[in-house]
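Record Rod shape determining protein RodA, 393 aa.
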Amino acid sequence: MSLHQSTEEKQYDINMMFVLFLFAVVSCFYIFQAQQLGQYEGNFMIQQIIFFVLAFAIMMVVLHFDFEYYLVLHWFLYAFGLALLAGLLVAPASIAPVINGAQSWYVIPGLGQFQPAEFMRIFLILTLSAIIYNHHTEYSGSKNMRSDFILIGKMFLPTLPVILLLATQPDMGSVMLVGAIFVSLLVVSGISYKILAVAIGGPLLAILGFVISFFQFPNLMERFVFSNMDPYQVSRIQGWLNPFENQDAGFQTARALTAIGSGRLFGNDGDQVYIPEAHTDFIFAVVGSVHGFLGGAMVITLYFVLLYQILLISMRSHNAYGKYICAGVIGLFAFQVFQNIGQSLGLLPVTGFTLPLLSYGGSSLVGTMFILGIVMSVRYHSKNYFFAHHKNQ
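=>
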């Protein structure tokens, strides 16, 4: 037997599937609770059940496709996703209408709405992961600062067109998610920590300085910052940092905070507080209102378990490409959960993207299960090496 002989371990990740089943149950329950607020007509819970059945089927198909094939196919998928985003710029209003101030959706007769940004994020993870994998193959044994900057440039070039197309819609929430993908893969790409400290620490310090200046030096902010910004942007910032004093811009945040506060420790047994977009963007506020702090803690714990399962898959992968894919997915989900829950708690600005696996939405759910199918493919197609430790590229 060769020292490097390997065997396929084709096993389903039962733990991951069980966690996803729990998410399906929790999601449908709280969407049903959101329906009781009477904001919209229609049975969203039944539609969400249908979306979950479809999404689970897609996930099962995707996980049987060997993830290593994406090393060859990722540019085709990237080009396809980019074409869908670009198509929104030229599509007529009957196909790509403006919804909530953004032209981000295709309307497919008989099927509903389709948001290409959900799938572009998946294709971008596959592409950036392949770029990192191929770069380390090319520069094996010759890593230095120059090669690190070359890698950053390689990653930035395919990311920039995606950001520009999303910004023109405008969909700044998706722009932030693309940024989260880029940063998370940059962290695991192996570049110098000095570069990472500047690239990540600089923007974080700038945001912190902005928030401190907003409260400590309001007159200076008004004179030198807000006077040079669009009134819409100023109102969004005011609504985030002072939601109860700016009821127009901060209405959603104020209602979400009121709903969560009414839940206290065990939940609100009385009339539920009205929450705008309760079944989508602010589903966590419904959780807090119905089952209080304990309900919110349960949901957050469920997300920690999901991210832990993805981390285990990454650690068991025989292939560095699979590890990079898992890292990108962890970064995407962690930021999306952190931001969505943060906006419900008034800690972060309202961005308009959903809570993965919990909020209502076909495109979001199918896209999420698609990328989780790829993650499970990393586990399903893993290999064991006998009598030798396999060295990742």
